[in-house]
Amino acid sequence: FPTWKRTLARRARESQMKRFCKAQAIQRRLEEIEVTFRELEQQGIKLEKLLRDENESPADQQTQWTNQLLYLVQKKNNLMTEESDLMIAVQELKLEEQQCQLDEKLRSYMNKEDTLKTPEDVKAEQEILKQLVEVVNKRNVLIQLQEERRLSEL
Prior knowledge:
Number of domains: 1
Subcellular location: Membrane
Radius of gyration: 25 Å
Oligomer: single chain
Protein name: MICA1 monooxygenase
Structural class: mainly alpha
GO molecular function: monooxygenase activity
Keywords: Coiled coil, Membrane, Monooxygenase, Oxidoreductase
Main location: membrane
Distance between the termini: 52 Å
Shape: elongated
Largest sheet: none
């Protein structure tokens, strides 16, 4: 087993572990965001009830409640943006994993001598290459989407 093949296999395992760890971190953050959404929702409901029920409250108290409500809405919007970014990151990880698998398959076909390839091998190699290009294009679209969102936020 040549050294370069062992190195490729090790690097593939390392990148797979990195993707797995990143996916776990994203999942944890999405769960945290969900909990925070529920907490913000409960706080918002309380503030809305206070604003509706307490018409005789001093104006400065109502202003304070309104400001708190607006702050909660802003916080919720920020969390929604973060959640959306994380969902894009999940898609990107899936495509990256798919790309690595296709790379590995394609490499196995390309390492085979052309004289030993059957017509089925050639066809399979072309199909994998086509799928690989599709995955790369999908990743490119996601990256462009992220860049457009980042620029629009600025």
